[in-house]
Specification:
About 45% of the residues lie in helices and about 15% in strands. It is α/β, with parallel strands linked by helices. It has an eight-stranded parallel beta barrel with strand order 1-2-3-4-5-6-7-8, surrounded by seven helices.
Amino acid sequence: MNPLIAPEGARHDARCALSVNVNKVALLRNTRHLGIPSVTRAAQLCLEAGAQGITVHPRPDARHIRADDVRELAALMKAWPQAEYNIEGNPTQNLMDFIREVRPHQATFVPDSEDQFTSDHGWQLPADAERLRPLIAECQSLGVRVSLFMDPLPEAMPQVAALGADRIELYTERWASAYGTPDEDAVLARFADTARAALAHGLAINAGHDLNRDNLTRFLREVPGVAEVSIGHALIADALELGYGETVRDYQRCIQRAYAG
């Protein structure tokens, strides 16, 4: 087990893990037919620099991550037993086929439509509950942990727990948009309240979407129990300037500062 990834039920001050979403590497590669930049090479360089996981979101239109990427990354991750492989997507579309085939460490269920530009909301409970329940159970029967992509709604946490999910992933775009504005404190308090409600109901916490080197430290400092952040767009954009290795190390420094003192 990766010592930087808190197991379910562990103390909630354990250090947050960094999972790198490599979708944008695939998006750039797909603009030509040369096979570069390599998605698997990007993942390897991030792991070598200290990332604790790799995330992919293979959409039905394969506009970035493709089926071969999912399989090649699964093969790569076998050489990194201390790291985690997270596959996210809508379980009513193409996600479950990948889960059944490669059995990643974690499946993150995201309620995207097939033509959605990017994730922009969490699951609606109880409306989505009954279609999610059997899919959560199936993943867990395969040994795959399930995280539900959720808006910061403290009142929804008992319903997530009742479905049997292991974790939530807090959809953090609202925090990113509020950062540096007069709304920053109030928005962050809402995320902290949701995290406390999740922990109280036995759920572990992930977070992701528009987190970056500016807004990450305060989020982790004030939102309790975040076990993992999944960062893609900002991290890959930073890597265009800094390189994968230095970018991952800088994000790890941002995480470490949240725990300093």
